Each structure stands twice: as structure tokens, then as C-alpha cells.
């Protein structure tokens, strides 16, 4: 009876303790990325497979400020730094054999739910060995890297307190695993568990942030509406029959008038190329210019382009020296430096013709989403592909697809957000059923341009290679839809942490899903790289994006639409918004990427930290409380931030508790808060 009481006491003490996880990385366990047997090229020629690489080691990150993903996920839990029982014991074992300096980075904190389940099951396995004294050499999992991370069983006496304590904790841990596995929805991937968890944690962070000031409320709404892929709520108002009929007639008449005003030319905007080719060739004769463009500043341009492999190149100066052809010279230089013209058999003249045609279809009047942004993302993608940890991991065809995707990812961007196009019932939104409207359009335009005369840069590729390349490009460009941000982040973090917990030693990347997942996140990082660039460049990008936001806000005001968050030029500053934008969006993404390629991205993270600290130091003092009170009296319908999930996504376990993500505003509340405007977010 005394033992039962002790067991019950242990159960109560350890109930609901599965939140923070520490995985011990032994010295002999290496987490390498290998190319494996890849069929992505579709053929042996023109960018075939490469030999396996052992260059990428997933190791513990150095001590630095962690993102919100590592904070507590429950009001009932202690800090996520708290370790599960077995992880704590494993850590103690490690401390007995490791020098103090090596112990500092001997543990990795696991935050993705699926990896947590794996870690817990490994804990159960180790506990079972201790309770039963089963020889580890009898296990099929006792060979290879697994054996190096499996602790030797402890000698415990049945019936004594240490034995009972371990038995109860093992049962609790196994019960927790069963609870989580029973709530997994079979039609969803395991990475969805992480995505839902991260959304819930972001909701908590944004709720606190929105309560800090009126500007925090607006920033929270902006982040929620831009970076979370949420189901649109449908309001079904109660109307009498006469009102409904009258409303329907008025609506149909308004839409008919709108279509008449726009005319038949609107559909040509959807078909791919909205305007005819504006040039033949900008160079004369058969010789392709040294840097892909003719310019009187060839020597100075060459000096800048010699740093194309470096992070933070001055893309603005390149635009000036290249006769406003930054995309053409960046793409040409990147392909040439990688010898892709020979490997993929791309005629240089055809390549220049295509990229110039592509650049002509970027809207020059856009302050931000123009060919300068495309050139910046292409150069950033090129640099990330050069990461030492990824050396020989991707094939030439995959590299070509990534650079091509980066160069086309915003072609013919109208300078408006997806949500604006949806709210205004644009032809593009109708064509693509409100799903990744702009991203689908960018792809359609780019592949249509390939059909122009002397523009098919892939004409020498086999049919299989073209199909494979097209699929990869489509996946990567669709991943630049910022509403997919949290899913991309969750996918990558789950993959990295699962491989660490499994202890298999090798991240093979031997299938399309894993390989394209890394490439999608690579391009996504490049698209969200402005805050990681030198501060003068970053601030310049911020100004350009804000002007584009303001132009949309002006248009919304003229059309009597609700002004989108951060788009009101009469009520806008940027400091606190950039601080929040980095903390909640940019830093978690780059933190995860840095974990994948550690230590190659440490300087990028350092620059991001410095830029965050600079914007934090520039945040103006908050107005006194009586200011907010008077403002609230004048505007009683202040935004209220809240998040919701579609009921079909609402989970039931400790990991997947409900997430709420939406914002409420009234028709009168069209003004933005005067404190904060985030920037560098894809529209």
C-alpha cells in the first residue's frame, strides 16, 4: 500500500511534464547531409547526380538569444528549458565524462512535437532497459550510431524507491506519447503538429505584444494577416427577403459596371504576358557583353560583381552601373560562375535574351517589388547555395531551378498584396481561386515568356529534365507566399530535430520531398533576407517597401476599402514594427536555417541581431497612459487581436491545443497606429 501511495504521488508530481526537451549529442554521433541516390535530374546528362557529401553536421547551436519558439508553450508548464527525466539523467552521465567546455554545447533543445515524441519514446526505451536489465546487444537498434548514444542500464532493485520512481515516470512518459499519437489526424503530416504549435505560441506572443500599445495591436494584426495561412471566416448575416433581393440586385449591377469599365483587356493580364516585348536585344552582334549587359561602367561593375559570392553586396549600386539591369547581370554572373551554361547547355545569348525579357516584365514603377528586389533575392539564393555545409549536396539542375525560381519569383508584381486582390475581386484572384494569387501569376508569366522567340533557355534539356525543373520551380515560387511561412518553418525545424533525435547520424536528403523542402526554405530565407543585410541596405529596403505599402493604402482609401495594416501613410513609423517583425518572423526562420548549416550562417545571425538591437534602440518613448485613454475615448472601436483556427484543425492533445488567429475591426477603424510599420515582408 505504501508503494502504491508512492507511485500515485510520483504520477501526480510528474503529470504533464512533457514540454521542454533536451537531446544529448554525443561526440561520436554526426548528423551529416548526404546527397544519396537522387533522381531529381531526370537524366544522367546535363546536371546529373553528384557524389555523396559528408559536409553538413547538425550540432548544438552556440549560446545566443533564442527565438520565441523556445519559450514555454503552456500556462501550466515551466520553462521549456526544463528537461524530461531521462534527458536530465543522460545529461548527468555526459557531464561525468566530458570536459566542462565540451559540455556547454552537448545538448540541443527540441521544440517540434514529433521530435519530442521520438525523444520521449527513446527515453521510455532506455528506462525499460534499466528496469528489466535486458542486454542492449539483443536489440536490433543496438548497432551503428544508435549504440553510441544508448546509455548502459542502471542496476535497480525492484520494489525500492528509485525503481518505483523510474517505473512511474516511464509509464507517464509512455502515456503522454500515446495521448499525442491518438490525437494525430491521419490526413495531416507530422510537421502540421509543429505548425499548429508554433501558431499557438505566436498567438500568445502577439497577444502580449498587442497589449503593449496601440501600435503593437496593429503590428500583431499585420503579422497575423500576412504570415499565417488561416481560413477566412464567412459571415452569414440575417436579412429579410426584400433586403436580400435588393442587395443582390445592387451587387450584380455594381459588378457589371465594374467589368464594363475594365473592359476585355483585363483577362489578358491573367493569360501570362500583359504587354508585348519591349526590346529585341540590348546588345549588338553575336558577342554577349562581359556581364550580360552593355554599360560604360563595365570595369566598376566587374569589381562589384567579383563579390557576388559575398553576403550583403550593394545591389543598388549594381543597378546604377548596369543601366537599370540588375537582374540580368546578377543572373548572368551567377550562372556563368557556376558553369551552368555548359552543364545545362544554355546558350548565353538565349539566356541574356530571356532574362532581359523577364526583367522588362517586372514593374519598374513599383518601389519595392521590381527587378532590383528580384536581383537581390537571386544573389542571396546564389550565396546560400554556396554555403560550405551544402557543398555537393544539390545537383546542377536543382541549383539551376533555385536560381531560376529566385529570378522569376515576383515577375509582373502589381505592387499590391494578395489580400487586396482578393478583397477587390480582381481577375487574378478569380483565376486562381484566391489561393497564392500572385505566386501563381508569377509562374504563369515566367513560363509563358520561355515560349517567346529565342527565350527558351532549357531547349537543350531532355523532356524529363524539363518536367523535373518545372516542378521544382513551381514548388519554390509557391513557397514565397508569405502566408505559408509558418508551415515552411515547421517543416524545416521538424526535419532537423527529428534527425537529431533519431540519432541515425545521417540526414540523407535522398528523396524529392526532403530535398525540395530545403530548397524552398533556402529561397524563402533569401526572400526574407533584407533584415540580415548591412544596416544601410536594410534601411533602404524598409523605405522602399513602406512606400509601396502606402501606395496601396492610398488606393484603398480612394476606393473606400478598409486600409490594410501598415498601409496608412498618415499614421506610420517603423522602429517598433521592425523590432517585432524580426523577433516573430525573421529570427525564428534564420535561427532554424543556421541550425541546419551550422556554423556557416553565424555571421548572418549576428548581423540580424545587430539590426534588431538598432531598431530597438530607435523606438520612441511610449506616450503616457492618459494619452491612450484619450485616444481610446475618441476611437472606441480599437482593433482587438485574436487568433482562431478552423475547427477541423483544432487539436485535442497537450501539443496541439487550440490556436486562435484573427482580428476584429469596425468600418470606422481604418487608421493605422502611428508607431510601427513592419518591412521586408513579401506582399
UniProtKB/TrEMBL annotation:
Protein name: Phosphodiesterase
This protein's encoding gene: LOC105360639
Gene3D superfamilies: 3'5'-cyclic nucleotide phosphodiesterase, catalytic domain
Active-site annotation: 369
Stretches with biased composition (Basic and acidic residues): 650-667
Highest taxon above the source species: Eukaryota
Family named by the database record: Belongs to the cyclic nucleotide phosphodiesterase family.
EC number(s) given by UniProt: 3.1.4.-
Hydrolase found in the keyword field: yes
GO cellular component terms given for this protein: synapse
Quaternary state and interactors: Monomer.
Cofactor remark from the record: Binds 2 divalent metal cations per subunit. Site 1 may preferentially bind zinc ions, while site 2 has a preference for magnesium and/or manganese ions.
GO terms under biological process: anesthesia-resistant memory; axon extension; chemical synaptic transmission; circadian rhythm; conditioned taste aversion; courtship behavior; nonassociative learning; olfactory learning
UniProt keyword terms in alphabetical order: cAMP, Hydrolase, Metal-binding
Cofactor(s), names only, from the UniProt record: a divalent metal cation
Domain PDEase: 293-622
Amino acid at each position: 500500500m505504501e508503494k502504491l501511495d508512492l507511485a500515485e504521488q510520483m504520477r501526480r508530481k510528474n503529470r504533464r511534464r512533457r514540454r521542454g526537451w533536451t537531446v544529448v549529442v554525443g561526440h561520436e554521433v554526426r548528423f551529416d547531409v548526404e546527397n544519396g541516390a537522387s533522381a531529381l535530374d531526370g537524366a544522367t546528362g546535363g546536371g546529373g547526380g553528384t557524389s555523396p557529401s559528408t559536409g553538413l553536421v547538425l550540432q548544438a547551436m552556440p549560446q545566443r538569444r533564442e527565438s520565441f519558439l523556445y519559450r514555454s508553450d503552456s500556462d501550466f508548464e515551466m520553462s521549456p528549458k526544463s528537461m524530461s527525466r531521462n534527458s536530465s539523467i543522460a545529461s548527468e552521465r555526459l557531464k561525468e565524462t566530458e570536459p566542462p567546455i565540451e559540455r556547454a554545447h552537448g545538448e540541443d533543445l527540441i521544440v517540434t512535437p514529433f521530435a519530442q515524441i521520438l525523444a520521449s519514446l527513446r527515453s521510455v526505451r532506455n528506462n525499460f532497459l534499466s528496469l528489466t536489465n535486458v542486454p542492449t546487444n539483443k536489440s536490433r537498434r543496438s548497432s551503428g550510431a544508435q549504440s553510441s548514444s544508448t546509455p548502459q542500464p542502471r542496476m535497480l532493485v525492484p520494489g525500492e524507491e528509485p525503481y518505483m520512481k523510474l517505473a512511474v515516470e516511464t509509464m507517464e512518459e509512455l502515456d503522454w506519447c500515446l495521448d499525442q499519437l491518438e490525437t494525430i489526424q491521419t490526413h495531416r503530416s507530422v510537421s502540421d503538429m509543429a505548425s499548429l504549435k508554433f501558431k499557438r505560441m505566436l498567438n500568445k506572443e502577439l497577444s502580449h505584444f498587442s497589449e503593449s500599445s496601440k501600435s503593437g495591436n496593429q503590428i500583431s494584426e499585420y503579422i497575423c494577416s500576412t504570415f499565417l495561412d488561416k481560413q477566412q471566416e464567412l459571415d452569414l448575416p440575417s436579412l429579410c427577403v426584400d433586403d436580400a433581393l435588393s442587395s443582390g440586385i445592387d451587387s450584380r449591377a455594381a459588378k457589371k459596371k465594374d467589368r464594363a469599365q475594365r473592359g476585355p483587356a483585363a483577362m489578358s493580364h491573367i493569360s501570362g504576358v500583359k504587354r508585348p516585348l519591349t526590346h529585341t536585344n540590348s546588345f549588338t552582334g553575336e558577342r554577349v557583353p562581359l556581364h550580360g549587359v552593355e554599360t560604360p561602367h563595365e570595369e566598376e561593375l566587374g569589381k562589384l560583381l567579383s563579390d557576388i559570392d559575398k553576403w550583403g553586396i550593394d545591389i543598388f549600386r549594381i543597378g546604377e552601373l548596369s543601366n537599370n539591369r540588375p537582374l540580368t547581370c546578377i543572373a548572368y554572373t551567377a550562372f556563368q560562375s557556376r558553369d551552368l551554361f555548359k552543364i545545362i547547355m544554355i546558350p548565353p545569348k538565349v539566356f541574356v535574351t530571356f532574362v532581359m525579357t523577364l526583367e522588362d516584365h517586372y514593374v519598374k514603377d513599383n518601389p519595392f517589388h521590381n527587378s532590383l528586389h528580384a536581383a537581390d533575392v537571386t544573389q542571396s539564393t546564389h550565396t546560400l547555395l554556396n554555403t560550405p555545409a551544402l557543398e555537393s549536396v544539390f545537383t546542377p539542375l536543382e541549383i539551376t531551378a533555385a536560381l531560376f525560381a529566385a529570378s522569376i519569383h515576383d515577375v509582373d508584381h502589381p505592387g499590391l498584396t494578395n489580400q487586396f486582390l482578393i478583397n477587390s475581386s480582381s481577375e487574378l484572384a478569380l483565376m486562381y481561386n484566391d489561393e497564392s494569387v500572385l505566386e501563381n501569376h508569377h509562374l504563369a508569366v515566367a513560363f509563358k515568356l520561355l515560349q517567346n522567340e529565342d527565350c527558351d533557355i532549357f531547349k537543350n534539356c531532355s523532356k524529363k529534365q524539363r518536367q523535373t525543373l518545372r516542378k521544382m520551380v513551381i514548388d519554390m515560387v509557391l513557397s514565397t507566399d508569405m502566408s505559408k511561412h509558418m508551415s515552411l518553418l515547421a517543416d524545416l525545424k521538424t526535419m532537423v530535430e527529428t534527425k537529431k533525435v533519431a540519432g541515425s547520424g545521417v540526414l540523407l536528403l535522398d528523396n524529392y520531398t526532403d530535398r525540395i523542402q530545403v530548397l524552398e526554405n533556402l529561397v524563402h530565407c533569401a526572400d526574407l533576407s533584407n533584415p540580415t543585410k548591412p544596416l544601410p541596405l536594410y534601411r533602404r529596403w524598409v523605405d522602399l517597401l513602406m512606400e509601396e505599402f502606402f501606395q496601396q493604402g492610398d488606393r484603398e482609401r480612394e476606393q473606400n476599402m478598409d486600409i490594410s495594416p501598415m498601409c496608412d501613410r498618415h499614421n506610420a513609423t517603423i522602429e517598433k514594427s521592425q523590432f517585432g517583425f524580426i523577433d516573430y518572423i525573421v529570427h525564428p526562420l534564420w535561427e532554424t536555417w543556421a541550425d541546419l548549416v551550422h556554423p556557416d550562417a553565424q555571421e548572418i545571425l549576428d548581423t540580424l541581431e545587430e539590426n534588431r538591437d538598432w531598431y530597438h534602440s530607435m523606438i520612441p518613448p511610449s506616450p503616457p497612459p492618459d494619452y491612450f485613454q484619450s485616444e481610446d475615448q475618441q476611437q472606441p472601436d480599437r482593433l482587438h487581436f485574436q487568433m482562431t483556427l478552423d475547427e477541423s484543425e483544432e487539436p485535442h492533445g497537450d501539443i496541439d491545443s487550440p490556436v486562435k488567429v484573427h482580428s476584429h475591426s469596425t468600418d470606422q477603424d481604418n487608421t493605422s497606429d502611428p508607431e510601427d510599420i513592419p518591412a521586408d515582408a513579401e506582399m
